[in-house]
Design a protein that fits this description.
Layout lengths: L8 H9 L11 E3 L2 H11 L1 E6 L9 E5 L7 E5 L2 E5 L2 H11 L5 E5 L5 E2 L2 E11 L5 E10 L14 E3 L1 H11 L4 H22 L5 E8 L5 E7 L13 H13 L12 H6 L4
The chain binds adenosine-5'-diphosphate and magnesium ion.
Adenosine-5'-diphosphate binds next to strand 2, strand 6, strand 11 and strand 12.
Length: 270
């Protein structure tokens, strides 16, 4: 069976929502339209809107509603932040900024920060040669200081999980190894659920947000995840195992042409 790619964020999110164990870890996700966006801003105060078939953080927009009596809204896309005094004005700008594609609306998670920069995690889960789902890599991504997405293609910096989580975990009396185990299990749970819905799946990369209470949230699942980001970890054995598993299920078959850095960098999704 060929390696499967499922590009619709909807299809993948719906599969997770159908799972009683995972449903609570998925932010509320709904279609994009004027009333839904308004209602979700009332409910959550902050939401993300993004293309259903997006990649690399492109077209992702963050919307906020200011608390209190005065109606106020904020919108950020790229490095540009704007404020509005009415919902109508904000929505007009949003329609101009958004790409002409199908979007979805998602409850916003306040990401943890380091030096004022947001960060989240990529959890890589692969089918092992022994035929079991295994979490093979976890890496943090620290957003560009003025951006709302952590993607490498949007100026994000890959960093070891421990570097980003150390202080937050210590404050909560928790250990890095315990948290790593928690994220690893989450990864295997997500892969098991999606693997049943989409037979032929061999690897996934989960974007995991951690909120201020250290609860992990599943932002999206990628079915052709970028393996090369794991080259940025000091522990080289992580990438070696990822590559070994991927070679076993045929992901690297056509990579023989050359292994120059630029060619390798252009493959896969971050
Ligand atoms: N609901 C959300 N709450 C907080 N941050 C989010 C949310 N959705 C997306 N983001 C941020 O935007 C980035 C890109 O969004 P994502 O859904 O992964 O789309 P893409 O396919 O473009 O990577 C995420 O890695 C995260 O940093
Ligand atoms: Mg992503």
């Amino acid at each position: 069976m060929p390696i499967r790619r499922i590009s619709s964020k909807w299809a993948k999110t719906e599969a997770l929502l159908a799972s009683p164990e995972l449903r609570g870890l998925v932010p509320d996700t709904r279609p994009f339209d004027k009333q839904t966006v308004r209602g979700m801003l009332d409910d959550y105060g902050m939401i993300y809107v993004k293309p259903v078939n997006g990649t690399f953080g492109q077209g992702v927009i963050r919307l906020g509603k200011t608390a209190g009596n005065d109606e106020g809204y904020t919108l950020q896309a790229g490095e540009k932040q704007q404020s509005f005094t009415s919902y109508e004005a904000m929505y007009d700008s949003l329609l101009k900024l958004k790409r002409p594609r199908t979007y979805l609306s998602q409850q916003g998670i306040e990401l943890l920060k380091q030096s004022g920069r947001r960060f989240d995690f990529r959890v890589m889960v692969q089918m092992s040669p022994a035929g079991r789902w295994e979490t093979t890599g976890i890496i943090g991504r620290l957003a560009h200081p003025r951006r709302i997405v952590t993607n490498y293609h949007a100026g994000g910096t890959p960093l070891p999980m421990e570097t980003l989580m150390k202080a937050h975990l210590e404050n909560a009396g928790r250990t890095s190894s315990g948290y790593r185990r928690q994220l690893s299990k989450l990864g295997v749970d997500v892969a098991s659920v999606l693997g049943k819905r989409f037979p032929g799946l061999k690897e996934i990369g989960i974007d995991v947000a951690v909120d201020t209470s250290l609860k992990p949230w599943i932002l999206e699942v990628n079915t052709m995840p970028d393996p090369f980001i794991f080259l940025r970890l000091p522990d080289r054995s992580v990438y070696r195992r990822i590559r070994r598993y991927a070679t076993a299920y045929g992901r690297f078959r056509r990579a023989k042409r050359g292994s120059s850095k630029s060619k390798r960098r252009s493959g896969g999704k971050r």
